[in-house]
Amino acid sequence: MATQKATQNTWKGRLSAARTRLTSAADSVATARDRHRRRATLTEQHRLHFDLLCKAMDDPALAAVLNTYESDVSPERQRQYLFANALYVNALYFHRIGAMTRQELHGHFRVMCQNDVFQEYWVATRHHRESLPEASEEAGLGQMMDGLIQEQADSDSDEWWVVGEPPEELS
């Protein structure tokens, strides 16, 4: 009787362990599926955003819809701003899908903010970013860009590639 009970306990333990492993495997598959869906959704959103920006860059009548700047902007400058936005959003997209770490994004932003037109675009769209929730990832990345632009403006060095401390990677 004791041997039978010990055998039953052994089988119960093995079944419990197998059930735990199966549950863990199912959770891993579900997590991977969710990650794939998120990436596919972000890819489609990015594609749509870029298509809309391209249409606006090609057609001043459509670009006028996106003119939410606080000052008058010439059609040529607005096309440049739209292109600057496309570059910025493209970098965000690569970061969001995991193709670029936060440190790599910092380096990419460092290069982008070397351009005077990009810096003008950044200033002209400051009020857009002020509407973001302060705790959002995009607000944090906008603050990263703000910091880089300020640090580069304050720097006495022509070595722009060393300005700004890269962020710690988040776990």
3D architecture notes:
The protein is mainly alpha-helical and 171 residues long. The chain has one domain. The chain has 7 helices and no strands. Helix 3 packs antiparallel against helix 4. The model has no long low-confidence stretch (mean pLDDT 85).
Secondary structure layout:
Elements: H1 2-58, H2 60-63, H3 75-96, H4 102-112, H5 116-124, H6 126-130, H7 137-154
Helix pairs in contact: 1-3, 3-4, 3-5
**Overall number of strands:** 0
Number of domains: 1
Q: Which of globular, elongated, flat, extended, rod-shaped describes the shape?
A: elongated
Query: What fraction strand?
Result: under 5%
Q: What Rg is obtained from the alpha carbons, in whole angstroms?
A: 25 Å
Element string (H = helix, E = strand): HHHHHHH
Helix/strand class:
mainly alpha
Poorly predicted residue ranges: none
Total helix count? 7
Residue share in helix: over 70%
Mean pLDDT: 85
Distance between the termini: 52 Å
Q: Biggest sheet, in brief?
A: none
